[in-house]
Amino acid sequence: MWTLFYLLLAQKKNIAIFTGWGAFIQAWITATIPPFLLLNNQWEFVG
């Protein structure tokens, strides 16, 4: 993500839609799935 933000903001590349979707998907994976598994007592079965 840092590379995408660097290319988007510092290098002025036209990748805004790709960067937005990448941030959305990464945020959903890291901020939704683990809490859902914790709330359903399934976290100990992961890994």
Automatic annotation (TrEMBL):
InterPro entries listed in its UniProt record: AmiSUreI_transpt, AmiSUreI_transpt_sf
Taxonomy, superkingdom: Bacteria
Keywords carried by this UniProt record: Cell membrane, Membrane, Transmembrane, Transmembrane helix, Transport
Membrane-related topology note: Multi-pass membrane protein
Positions of transmembrane segments: 15-39
Major localisation: membrane
Subcellular location: Cell membrane
Family classification: Belongs to the AmiS/UreI family.
Name the UniProt record assigns to this protein: AmiS/UreI family transporter
Originating organism: Aeribacillus composti
